[in-house]
Amino acid sequence: MPRVAALAQGRRIYFLGDCDPFDLLVFAWLRLHMPVRYLRTSDAVLSAVGVGVSDCRITISFSDEEQRAMSLVSDVWPEFAEAVGPECAGLLEGSRKLELEALVSFRTKPVSTVIDLLQ
Predict the structure, then answer these.
(1) What is the phi-psi region of residue 24: left when phi exceeds 0, alpha when psi lies from -120 to 50, beta otherwise?
(2) What CA–CA distances, in Å, run from 85 to 2, 5, 34?
(3) What whole-number distance in Å separates Cα of residue 106 and Cα of residue 74?
(4) Which residue ranges make up each domain of the chain?
(5) What is the reported pLDDT for 118?
(6) How far apart are CA 43 and CA 48, in angstroms?
(7) Measured between alpha carbons, how far is residue 116 from residues 16, 74, 94, 98, 119 in Å?
(8) Nearest alpha-carbon partner for 36 in 9, 74, 56
(9) Which helix (H) or strand (E) covers residue 65, if one does?
(10) CB atoms within 10 A of CB 67
(11) DSSP letter, residue 111
(12) From the CB of residue 12, how many other CB atoms can be counted at a distance below 10 Å?
């Protein structure tokens, strides 16, 4: 981790991960070691690419391991729901996840609109 933190020194670092417990845990760990902005699979990203979570075709049920990991997410990052937004938080509370690949596959707007979220 010290090498990664050294490479990141003086740069803006963004984390873009899936809306799932394991990626949330990775971000929670990273933010302990370096300043990192959570550009996540969130309501804002969903809106930017024109995807809604109400379509169950784009979500996946949690595995047993992911189900257990959600309680750890709540322990180490209690405010995760604020970061992902109400739609994605509801998805996670319902034991469903959303992968970045689904966003790209079901998008109705250009993926480049996500770049606007970096500013």
Answers:
(1) alpha
(2) 31, 28, 23
(3) 29
(4) 12-118
(5) 60
(6) 9
(7) 14, 29, 29, 21, 6
(8) 9
(9) helix 64-76
(10) 12
(11) G
(12) 9
Chosen CATH of 12-118 out of 3.40.50.460, 1.10.10.10, 3.40.1360.10, 3.30.70.260:
3.40.1360.10
Amino acid at residue number 102: A
Please provide the size of the chain in residues. Answer: 119
- Tokens 């490479």 sit on residue: 7
Per-residue pLDDT tens listing for the chain (119 residues): 677 777 778 888 888 889 999 999 999 998 888 888 887 677 777 788 888 777 667 889 999 999 999 999 999 999 999 988 888 899 999 999 988 888 788 888 887 777 776 65
E runs forming strands in the chain: 14-15, 37-38, 60-61, 96-97
